[in-house]
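Batch 3, record 17
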Amino acid sequence: DQQVKQNSPSLSVQEGRISILNCDYTNSMFDYFLWYKKYPAEGPTFLISISSIKDKNEDGRFTVFLNKSAKHLSLHIVPSQPGDSAVYFCAASGYTGANSKLTFGKGITLSVRP
Amino acid sequence: NAGVTQTPKFQVLKTGQSMTLQCAQDMNHNSMYWYRQDPGMGLRLIYYSASEGTTDKGEVPNGYNVSRLNKREFSLRLESAAPSQTSVYFCASGRQGVNSPLHFGNGTRLTVT
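Prediction for the assembled complex:
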């Protein structure tokens, strides 16, 4: 039972254009959402997060949008750069007392063409 | 400023052998986690430790044991390795009880033949 879904396994975008990465979730108890970026042979690196009390969070070229009614979030990268080519994981957690575990999607491989 | 350090980086085991993956963090985090990453499966939680002295099972705990040695260190043990445990293993740490990101190590690539 996959609670965090990234249905598109890959995305290819031209340098300078917008990259939109999508993520859906099924667990209504999730209240904190994150995006991680992963290069080959490295660990995932935190990129940006959003709490369920917000619908948008922006950090430089990266913006995350949250639509709670649709249980959907998306990551926008503008403008896309070749160095953005990596695997992007969507993750979610629900605060349950002292433990806050992250549930990850399967990841999307982003390729930014020069 | 090391963050989360995992050893070894690579390991090859024969079926039935045992080994321990080591993880240490220097960020004074209370919570530590072990994930595995398999192709097409994302990252799945094996075990976690919300604080020193406590451990709990995650999504895929079978075939593994863990030890929270102290606040800094959290080890993962395979008692009798199986080919299905061929994977990349990531350790992570984070602050307990607040919405904050986890910080990951660079992983251990394990092959079981």
